[in-house]
Amino acid sequence: MSAYGDTVPIAAQAAQGALALLRTSGEGTLELLARIFSRPRALLEAPGHTVVHGWILPGPAGAESGAGKIDEVLVSVYRAPRSYTGEEGADISCHGGSAAAAAILESLRGAGFRDALPGEFTFRAFMNGKLDLTRAESVMELVSAKTQGGLERAVRRLSGLLEQEIRQIREKLLEVVSAAELYLDYSEDEIEVSPDEAAGRLPRREEAEEALRRLRALAASYRREQIYREGALAVIAGRPNAGKSSLFNALLNEDRSIVTGTPGTTRDWIEASLSLEGIPLRLADTAGIREIPASPGESREEAETLGIERSRELIKEADIILYVVDGSAGLTPEDGNFIRLRGEKLIPLWNKTDVREPADEVRRGYPRLVAVSARTGRGMEELCGALAGALKDFPDISGGEELFPAGLGTRRQKDLTEKAADALEEALAMADREEPLDMTAPLLREALHYLGEITGEVSPADILETMFSRFCLGK
Ligand SMILES: Nc1nc2c(ncn2[C@@H]2O[C@H](COP(=O)(O)OP(=O)(O)OP(=O)(O)O)[C@@H](O)[C@H]2O)c(=O)[nH]1
Ligand SMILES: [Mg+2]
Predict the structure, then answer these.
(1) CA separation (Å) from 15 to 107, 295, 342?
(2) 317 C-alpha to center of ligand 2: Å?
């Protein structure tokens, strides 16, 4: 059975375009590859980091006769430990199209390579100390990044910045743990003891508190990174016919959502992506919210009712709500209530200024009100500015960037960071209650352990396997 953790030669297709790339790695890779290569000696003698030209042949038998070539290829040769995986390996670039790559893969199997498991190359790189877990995970993030921002941030983690951030916290914590251990190992008359320590409280308490602050800030960075990766959700809401779909289209600069003069036009919500000053945004147009008079059996209204339910759910999820007031109808008490309830994360918009401007008292009542006309485009720039401003003011977006420019990229990292913080917080609370140090110390060690799991220093094998199996093939 194939499994992560062995070192046998493996192969997988890693890319396909005008050219395709197959990747191989493992002890004895070049020996095996030479069996199906037109220039076996050139391959076997090639130094690491050189390229050998030749043909891939259908099977070991063909190697002698040189018959039945599959494809002309370039083989990049890697010698252990100077390779991505840390093992001996070879990348085969062949002609694009699925047929050539599939035939080469088949021939590799015939020569003795086994198919790589998802993420197995990166797994081996991790096992051989080429990268820590945070960097291995960032490889996956990089591959799946959908936005420029998401990509840039994954690259920060790939370069090892997150690993460093975690190591710094770990060092702080280590000071606390080693002071505690020292203290537990020696009796009071053997070492000098501060009054705090004598009372059984935590030695190096300031360091512990500092480590806790940092852990919490690091945990919070996950949301910021998630926004950069997936986009913040901005939901356009308002009563029917207010001009939500018109504004949605105007913001996107294209006719995406259907606009009509009949209230209740938008039923299902529509989502589109855009980027505002480098921050990705998911913009959603929703069904207008209103109380619908019940008239059973009428499917049109059922669809609208369902649409309104979805609008409500989306509004709950939203990071930002653009609430559109139908300027031609004026501000209703319902509008007023809605705006007041949602507070900070709502930007009130007065649409249809070409028909009617908001009265001075409305402006005074809602100082953040942005007046726009989806029809003429008036105020759209101001709206974009207000949106960008709201995004930047996000505690989620702006927080902790100086302290943790890389931040956490995966849920796994966030959960472990929180567990470490919880353990440390509990240790501090116990110290406050003057509980003896031998009760507190295990919690400190636990916090340290969780940090070690983030970088992979102490990760159990099964967790590693589950993690890497989520990678794509050939990575
Ligand atoms: N004069 C004027 N009319 C507008 C403006 N924006 C939208 N409208 C009109 O208002 C009507 C409703 O526009 P929609 O964008 O469909 O409104 P909506 O809020 O999406 O409506 P529902 O999907 O039914 O909830 C259409 O006839 C639009 O042409 C505007 O800025 N000025
Ligand atoms: Mg609409």
Answers:
(1) 18, 57, 47
(2) 19
pTM, two decimal places: 0.70
201 in the same domain as 99: no
pLDDT tens, residue order, the chain (475 aa)? 456 778 889 999 887 788 999 999 999 999 999 999 999 999 999 999 999 999 999 876 555 555 679 999 999 999 999 999 999 999 999 998 788 999 999 999 999 999 998 889 998 999 899 989 899 889 888 877 777 778 888 999 999 999 999 999 999 998 888 888 877 776 556 656 565 555 557 778 889 999 999 999 999 889 888 888 888 899 999 999 999 999 999 999 888 888 888 888 888 888 998 888 777 889 999 988 876 554 555 555 777 888 888 888 888 999 899 999 999 999 999 999 999 888 788 999 999 999 999 999 999 999 999 999 999 999 999 999 999 888 877 766 666 677 888 899 999 999 999 999 999 999 999 999 988 888 899 999 999 999 999 998 877 777 677 777 777 777 7
Q: Is residue 138 part of a domain?
A: no
CATH number at residue 115: 3.30.1360.120
Find the domain containing 36 and state its range: 10-132
The count of domains in the chain is: 2
- Domain final residue, candidates 67, 97, 132: 132
Distance, CA 261 to ligand 1 centroid (Å)?
6
**Burial class for 314, CB neighbours closer than 10 Å (0-12, 13-18, 19+):** buried
Residue 373 has a CB neighbour count (10 Å cut-off) of 21
CB of 311 sitting under 6 A from ligand 1: no
Is the separation of the CB atoms in 450 and 456 below 8 Å? no
Which residue's C-alpha comes closest to atom 1 of ligand 1? Answer: 352
In this structure, the residue with its CA closest to atom 21 of ligand 1 is 241
Cis peptide before 81 (omega within 30 of 0): yes
| CA nearest ligand 1 atom 13, residue | 243
| CB of residue 122 inside a 6 A radius of ligand 1 | no
What CATH number should be reported for the domain holding residue 414?
Answer: 3.40.50.300
Question: Which residue's alpha carbon is nearest to atom 7 within ligand 1?
Answer: 243
70 within some domain: yes
**Same structural domain, 362 and 242:** yes
Say yes or no: 202 and 290 in one domain: yes
- The best mutation among 239, 241, 283, 353 to test binding of ligand 1, ranked by most ligand atoms within 8 Å of the C-beta, falls on 241
